[in-house]
Design brief:
The complex is a heterodimer of chains A (about 120) and B (about 110).
Chain A (H helix, E strand, L loop, with lengths): L4 E3 L2 E4 L5 E6 L6 E8 L3 E9 L2 E4 L8 E5 L5 E5 L8 E8 L9 E2 L3 E5 L1
Parallel strand pairs in A: 2-11
Antiparallel strand pairs in A: 1-3, 3-8, 4-5, 4-9, 5-6, 7-8, 9-10, 9-11
Chain B lengths: L2 E3 L4 E5 L4 E3 L2 E3 L4 E8 L5 E7 L5 E3 L5 E5 L4 E6 L8 E9 L6 E2 L3 E6 L1
Parallel strand pairs in B: 2-12
Antiparallel strand pairs in B: 1-4, 3-9, 5-6, 5-10, 7-8, 8-9, 10-11, 10-12
Classes of the chains: A mainly beta (about 120), B mainly beta (about 110).
């Protein structure tokens, strides 16, 4: 079946521009997660959704980052006024739910480069 | 707050030898523990998880991990390494309740023929 998809696969943007990253989770998965993967830094948790609500936004690095999920499906991660330190691979994952702790299925990621 | 440590950035092992990738964690209470693998140019894939019960957990591709509460460890093991096991391995931990999954920084495994 179809896995988690993300678009675009690559994004190059100029410092100060806004970007939107999209995630399509596996159909039927109610939980959706965003992570950031920087070289040598592992995976940094950003935010998760259970349905359309995000109980924990504490992982967002600054108020320039926001995310939403509509219809319990597609999610967008928006970064406003991008900075060079935002350059990373942004990963989305989905799972059947939060509990019991189901395994997360990851998308291929969006590689963001801020010049 | 929960945390996880992977003390080795790189592990090298000869094909056919046993491999171990180390992971230690810190949580309040009992943890949920996971291993994920990232092959070159591919997304992260789930390998195995510990929720409760038997301390030895078996997962995909012949991997297993042992939960050791006294040492707060969850090391990943395989009896006989394959060149195709070469990848980046991530340990992750979650506390009980509505808490996020926290990943380690990853360990790069290189299996040499």
């Amino acid at each position: 079946g179809a896995g988690v998809s993300q678009s675009p696969s690559n994004k190059v943007t100029e410092k100060g521009k806004d970007v939107e990253l999209r995630c399509d989770p596996i159909s039927g998965h109610t939980a959706l997660y965003w992570y950031r993967q920087s070289l040598g830094q592992g995976l940094e948790f950003l935010i998760y959704f259970q349905g359309n609500s995000a109980p924990d936004k504490s992982g967002l690095p600054s108020d320039r980052f926001s995310a939403e999920r509509t219809g319990g499906s597609v999610s967008t991660l928006t970064i406003q006024r991008t900075q060079q330190e935002d350059s990373a691979v942004y990963l989305c994952a989905s799972s059947l739910g939060l509990d019991p702790p189901y395994e997360q299925y990851f998308g291929p990621g969006t590689r963001l480069t801020v010049t | 707050a929960q945390s996880v440590a992977q003390p080795e950035d790189q592990v090298n092992v000869a094909e056919g030898n046993p491999l171990t990738v180390k992971c230690t964690y810190s949580v309040s209470g009992n943890p949920y523990l996971f291993w994920y693998v990232q092959y070159p140019n591919r997304g992260l894939q789930f390998l195995l998880k510990y929720i409760t019960g038997d301390n030895l957990v078996k997962g995909s591709y012949g991997f297993e991990a042992e939960f050791n509460k006294s040492q707060t460890s969850f090391h990943l093991k395989k009896p006989s390494a394959l060149v195709s096991d070469s990848a980046l391995y991530f340990c992750a931990v979650r506390e009980r309740g509505n808490t996020p999954l926290v990943f380690g920084k990853g360990t790069r495994l290189s299996v040499i023929a």
